[in-house]
Amino acid sequence: MSKRERKKEIPVFCIELGQHIRTLRIENDLSIEEIAFKAGIDAQNLRKYELGKQEMKVSMMKRIADAFGITTPELLSFDK
Fold first, then answer.
1. Among 76, 46, 79, 37, residue whose Cα is nearest residue 58
2. Average of pLDDT values for 10-14?
3. How many domains does the chain contain in total?
4. Distance set, CA 15 to CA 9, 49, 70 (Å)
5. Angle subtended at Cα 23 by Cα 11 and Cα 35, rounded to the nearest 5 degrees
6. Does 3 score more than 60 pLDDT?
7. Helix, strand, or coil here: 29?
8. What single DSSP character describes residue 9?
9. Which domain holds residue 51?
């Protein structure tokens, strides 16, 4: 089994959430670096979340919501 075959499949919800985070960031005219700094995470990880290449824990969702100045339910309220 190759490394690519072993890779865990990312749930569709995580991919859509990443797209939503990117949309919020662009609508608020913020860079990946700005949101990552506010959330206390690495910009490269935020980029992976936005691109749907990495699954996100609930604690990370909270940190990202806080960085936008919104609640976690507000972050999660997008058309799924």
1. 76
2. 93
3. 1
4. 11, 8, 20
5. 90
6. no
7. coil
8. P
9. 9-74
